[in-house]
Design brief:
580 residues, alpha/beta, Rossmann fold, 2 domains, 12 strands, binds adenosine-5'-triphosphate
C-alpha cells in the first residue's frame, strides 16, 4: 500500500486534503465549547445577547467545518480516483508486454480481477484514509485532552469503555481479515469460470454441458457468497457493539456527571460538552479500528497489484548500451543454429538441435504430427519464449541482441488461432500497417482470397464483431492472413493458417503469395499439416518429437525420408495429397 501511495499519490493534493481535515476537526472540537458556554453562561444566566452571539459563532464554526469537509472530500476523492487510473494504466502497459510465461503464471482471469476489483479496493481505502483514517487519531487525542480538561474524574468511564471496545474490535478483526483476503481469490475463481463459460459457450451447448457448467459456476458463486456474507456479518457486529458501548458510556457519564452537578462540582454545560467529546472519542476509536479491517484487505489487493507491476518480464531486452541495430542493407534471412528449448516445468525438451537457414525469397515449410513442436519453433522467432541454447538470427542478426520492438518490426505472423479485434475490416488491417492505403488493403485482401466475401459484407468498413464472431473460421483465417501480409516485414510466418481453407483456396492463396513482389524479398515460414500445402516450399522441415528428422525439398524427402513418406502415404490414402 505504502509503495503504491509513494509512487502514485500527488503529495500536494494529499497535503491539501489533510489541511482541510485539520480545519474540519478543529471546528468539530470547538463546537462543544460553544455549546457549553451557551448553556452555562447564556441559558443559566438568561443572557439573551450572549445566547445570540454564541449562536452566530456556532453557525460560523459549523459553516467553516462544512467548507473544510467539502474541500477534504474533493481532494480525497479526486486523488484516490487518480491513483486508480494510474494503476490501471500501469497494469495494462505491463500486461501487454508480458511474454507467454507471465500470462500462464498469472492467468487471464486473475489479471482482469487485479485490474478491476483489486484497484477498486485500493481506491476505496485511499478515500477512507484521506477522509477518515487521518481524522480519527487527531480527533481521539484532541477530544481526549479536551474532555480531561473539562472533568478529569469522568474520564475514568473511558478506562472501562475503551478496553471493552478494543477487545470487541480485535475479536471482529481476527475473524474478518482472513475472510476478506480469501474473498479476492474467490473473485478470481468466479471470473475464471465465467470467462471459460463465455468463451466456450458453443462447445458447452454442443456437448449439452450447460448443467455441468451452471453447477460449476454455482459452486464458485456459492463459495464466494458464503465467504463474503460471513465477512460482512462479522464486521456488521461492529456497529451494534459500538452503539452499546457508546450508550453504556453515556449512561455512566450522566450517572457520575449527575452526582457531580448535584454536589455543585460541575456545570450542566460542561456535562453536555463532555458527552459530545465522549461520543467523538469512541467514534474515532471505532473508525481507527476500521483501519485494521480495511487496510489488510487493501494490502492484500496492493500485493496482488505490485506482483504484476513489478514482475520482471522473462523475455527482456538487453541493457541499452548493449543493444544492436538491424543492418537495413542486409537482405531478409532466417537462421536456426542448434536451437534447444524446454518449457518451464516440462521434463523433456520441446525442441532439440534445430538447424536450418533460409534466404530472401525462400519458403520454409514445417510439417509433422501434432505436438511435434512446429508452433513452438515459430513462436521462438518473435521471442514469445526465450530459447535455452543455440542461436536464432533474423537478417543475420542474433534476435536477443536487438530490442523486441525492432524484432517485431521485421516479423509478421498469423497465429494458429486467428485473432480479430472488434471494429471494422479496415481497423483490423491497420493493426498490420497503420499507414496502409485502401488500395494496399484491397491488394492484401485479394492475395488472402478475401476480396469477394469482404465486398459482399460491405467492404473495408464492414463490422468485425468481438473475436471476429460474425465471420466463419476460414474467413477469419484469411482476414488474419491479409493483416499479416499488409505489413512490410522480412519474415512472414503462417502458423497452420491454411488448415481452415479448402484445397483450392489454399493453393490459390499460396500462388498469390509467391507472385507478390514484397514476399519475393522476404522469407516465408509456413507451418502445415497437409503435404499439398508444403510440397512447393524451397525447404521442408519434417518434425517429430521436437527434432527435425529430415529436411529438403518435397522430392528429396519423398525419396529419402521415412517419416515424410509416411505422412505422404497417409494423406494419399485419405485422398488429401492429390498433388503430392
Ligand atoms: N505453453 C506450453 N507449456 C508447456 N508445454 C507446452 C506449451 N505449449 C506446447 N507445449 C508442449 O510442447 C510440445 C510441442 O507443442 P507445439 O504446440 O509446438 O506442437 P505442434 O507441432 O505445433 O502441434 P499442433 O500441430 O497440434 O499445433 C507439445 O508436447 C506440447 O504439449
Amino acid at each position: 500500500m505504502i509503495k503504491i501511495a509513494r509512487k502514485n499519490l500527488n503529495w500536494w493534493a494529499a497535503t491539501a486534503a489533510l489541511l482541510f481535515l485539520l480545519i474540519q476537526v478543529s471546528a468539530d472540537l470547538y463546537l462543544p465549547t460553544i455549546t457549553s458556554n451557551l448553556i452555562d453562561k447564556g441559558i443559566a444566566q438568561n443572557d439573551q445577547s450572549y445566547i445570540w452571539q454564541q449562536g452566530i459563532n456556532m453557525l460560523i464554526v459549523s459553516f467553516i467545518g462544512l467548507l473544510a469537509a467539502a474541500g477534504n472530500v474533493y481532494f480525497a476523492s479526486t486523488q484516490s480516483m487518480k491513483v486508480g487510473q494510474k494503476l490501471r494504466s500501469q497494469m495494462f502497459n505491463k500486461v501487454v508486454n508480458f511474454s507467454s510465461r507471465e500470462f500462464t503464471d498469472f492467468g487471464d482471469s486473475s489479471l482482469i480481477t487485479r485490474t478491476t476489483n483489486d484497484i477498486v479496493q485500493i481506491q476505496n481505502v485511499m478515500v477512507t484514509i484521506l477522509r477518515m483514517m487521518l481524522q480519527s487519531p487527531i480527533m481521539l487525542i484532541a477530544a481526549g485532552v479536551l474532555a480531561y480538561n473539562r472533568e478529569p474524574r469522568l474520564t475514568t468511564v473511558f478506562l472501562v469503555a475503551i478496553p471493552i471496545l478494543a477487545v470487541a474490535v480485535v475479536a471482529i478483526m481476527y475473524f474478518a481479515v482472513p475472510l476478506f483476503k480469501s474473498i479476492q481469490k474467490k473473485t478470481d475463481r468466479i471470473n475464471l469460470v465465467f470467462r471459460e463459460g463465455l468463451t466456450g459457450v458453443r462447445v458447452i451447448r454442443a456437448f449439452n454441458q450447460d448443467k455441468f457448467e451452471q453447477d460449476r459456476f454455482d459452486v464458485a458463486n456459492h463459495d464466494y457468497t458464503k465467504t463474503a456474507t460471513k465477512a460482512f456479518v462479522i464486521t456488521s457486529f461492529m456497529f451494534p457493539v459500538m452503539t452499546l458501548i457508546l450508550s453504556g458510556s453515556n449512561i455512566g457519564i450522566i450517572f457520575f456527571g449527575g452526582h457531580l452537578i448535584a454536589d455543585m462540582q460541575m456545570q450542566v454545560g460542561n456535562l453536555v460538552a463532555f458527552m459530545t467529546y465522549a461520543t467523538q472519542i469512541l467514534m474515532s476509536f471505532m473508525m481507527l479500528s476500521m483501519v485494521f479491517v480495511f487496510v489488510p484487505r487493501a494490502s492484500a489487493s496492493a500485493a496482488r497489484i505490485n506482483e504484476v507491476v513489478e514482475r520482471e518480464n522473462s523475455v527482456a531486452d538487453l541493457p541499452e548500451d548493449q543493444i544492436k541495430q538491424f543492418d537495413q542493407t542486409k537482405p531478409a534471412s532466417l537462421e536456426f543454429d542448434d536451437v534447444e528449448f524446454k518449457y518451464r516445468g516440462a521434463e523433456q525438451l520441446a525442441l532439440q538441435g534445430i538447424n536450418f537457414k533460409a534466404r530472401a525469397g525462400q519458403t520454409v515449410a514445417i510439417i509433422g504430427g501434432t505436438g511435434s513442436g512446429k508452433s513452438t519453433l515459430v513462436n521462438l522467432i518473435p521471442r514469445l519464449f526465450n530459447f535455452d541454447d543455440g542461436n536464432i538470427l533474423v537478417n543475420d542478426q542474433p534476435i536477443e541482441q536487438v530490442t523486441q520492438h525492432a524484432l517485431h518490426e521485421k516479423i509478421s505472423i498469423t497465429q494458429q488461432k486467428a485473432v480479430l479485434f472488434k471494429g471494422t475490416i479496415r481497423t483490423n488491417l491497420k493493426y498490420g500497417n497503420k499507414d496502409a492505403t485502401d488500395d494496399q488493403m484491397w491488394q492484401a485482401l485479394e492475395i488472402a482470397q478475401s476480396k469477394s466475401f469482404v465486398t459482399e459484407n460491405g467492404g473495408l468498413d464492414a463490422i468485425v464483431e468481438q473475436n471476429g464472431d460474425n465471420f466463419s473460421g476460414g474467413q477469419r483465417q484469411r482476414l488474419a492472413i491479409a493483416r499479416t501480409i499488409i505489413k512490410n516485414a522480412s519474415i512472414y510466418i503462417f502458423d497452420d493458417s491454411f488448415s481452415a481453407l479448402d484445397f483450392k483456396t489454399d493453393a490459390q492463396l499460396r500462388m498469390a503469395l509467391h507472385q507478390d513482389k514484397q514476399m519475393s524479398q522476404a522469407v516465408m515460414v509456413i507451418v502445415a499439416q497437409r503435404v499439398s500445402t508444403v510440397a512447393d516450399a524451397d525447404l521442408i522441415l519434417v518434425m517429430d518429437d521436437g527434432k527435425v528428422v529430415g529436411q529438403g525439398t518435397h522430392q528429396e524427402l519423398k525419396a529419402n525420408n521415412e517419416t515424410y513418406r509416411e505422412i505422404v502415404d497417409s494423406q494419399i490414402r485419405k485422398g488429401d495429397a492429390a498433388n503430392a
